[in-house]
Amino acid sequence: MAIKKEEHYLSSVKNALKILRSFTMDEPEKKISELSQSLGVNKSTVSRTMATLASEGFVYKDPETKKYRLGLSILSLSGVVNYQMDIYRESQPVLTKLVDSLGETAHISVLDHLDVIYLQKVDCNHPVRYLTHVGKRNPTYATSSGKVLLAHADESFVNQVIDNGLQQFTKNTITDPERLKTKLAEVRKNGYACSMEEILEGVNSIGAPIYDYQGKVIAALSVVGPKQRILPHKIESMSKKVVSAAMEISNRMGYI
Asked: What is the maximum alpha-carbon separation in the chain?
C-alpha cells in the first residue's frame, strides 16, 4: 500500500514537471485541454496539477482567456540558476565584445537531452530574422554549436542522435550518418564548426568550444547571421575571433 502511494506521488511530480517543461517562448500560454492532449495526461489530472502549481505561484491562470502561463516562482528559481552558472556570468562581457567586433548575434549553448539549448544571447544591431531565444532548442547536427558539442561528446551519444533520426531542414542539412561523423572529425581538427544554411535557408553560423578547468567541453559559443554577411571567404577570419572569444571564456572558467 505504501509503495503504491509513493508511486502515486512520484507520478504526480513527474506530471507537474512535464507540464512546466511544456511551456516555451513559442507557446507561453496553454489551456488545460491543450496540455492534456500534448502530454497524454487526462484533463482531471492536469487540472488538479495546475491548481497545485498555481497555489505555489509556479503557474498563473488568466481569468479572461482561461489559459495558464508560468508564474513568478519560476522566475525566482531561474535567477538562482543563472547566479550559480559561472559560464553565464563570465561570458557576458566576452559576448558583448565579440558582437561589437563581428556585428553578428552571439549565443552560448549546451546540450540538453539530444538537442542544443541556448543559455545566453547577445543581439547585434541588425539581427537576422531567425527566431532564437534563451531556452530555444535546436537539433545538434544542423547547428554550428551543436556540431561543436557533438564533436566532443562520447561516440555513444553521437549514435543516439543518429538513431533518433537526422531530419532534413534544408537542402544543406547533413542527413547521412557517415558524412556527419566525418564532419565532426573535421570540427575536432579545425577547432570550430560551421552551419551553412543547414537549419534555415539564408542563415549561417560559426561555433567554437568552451572548456572548463578540467579541459572538458561544457558549452559552445556561436555567432549567427545572414549568408550575405557570413560569407564563405570570411569564415576563416571570423572563426579566429569566435575561437578566441570561446577560449577567453574558457580561461575565465579556469581552463589553462
From this structure: 68
Residue 91, amino acid: S
Distance between CA atoms of residues 56 and 10, nearest Å:
18
Give residue 90's pLDDT: 84
State the average pLDDT for the chain. 87
17-45 as b/e, with b when 16 or more CB fall inside 10 Å? Answer: ebbeeebeeeeeebbbeebbeebebeeeb
Residue type, 23: F
- Give the model's confidence band at 71: pLDDT under 50 very low, under 70 low, under 90 confident, else very high: confident
Q: How far is CA 57 from the centre of its chain?
A: 25
CA atoms within 13 A on the CB side of 207: 36
User: Nine-digit cell at 95?
Assistant: 559576448
